[in-house]
Amino acid sequence: MNKDQVKGRVEEAKGKVKQVTGKAVGNKELEQKGRIQKAGGKIQAGYGDLKEDIKDSI
Predict the structure, then answer these.
(1) 9-18 contacts: CB < 8 A, separation 24 or more?
(2) pTM assigned to the model
(3) Percent of the chain clearing pLDDT 70 (strictly above)
(4) CA quadruple 43, 1, 3, 37: dihedral positive or negative?
């Protein structure tokens, strides 16, 4: 695993926590911020996966 994969998955988890918390307390802004953070983490993890795949194929 490379650093982008790890950081991306951590951001996904943090975003999910924010999203669920926002939904539970009725805070739409927090819920939306969580969705955005989760999506950003997913992109970063995907980038890390791509880097890892390229490295493995060389």
Answers:
(1) 9/41, 9/45, 10/41, 11/37, 11/38, 11/40, 11/41, 11/44, 11/45, 12/38, 12/41, 12/42, 12/45, 13/41, 14/41, 15/39, 15/40, 15/41
(2) 0.89
(3) 100
(4) positive
Type of residue at 40: G
Phi, psi of 10 (to 5 degrees): -65, -45
Which helix (DSSP H) or strand (DSSP E) does residue 44 occupy? helix 28-57
Mean pLDDT for each consecutive 10-residue tract of the chain (58 residues)?
A: 96 98 98 98 98 94
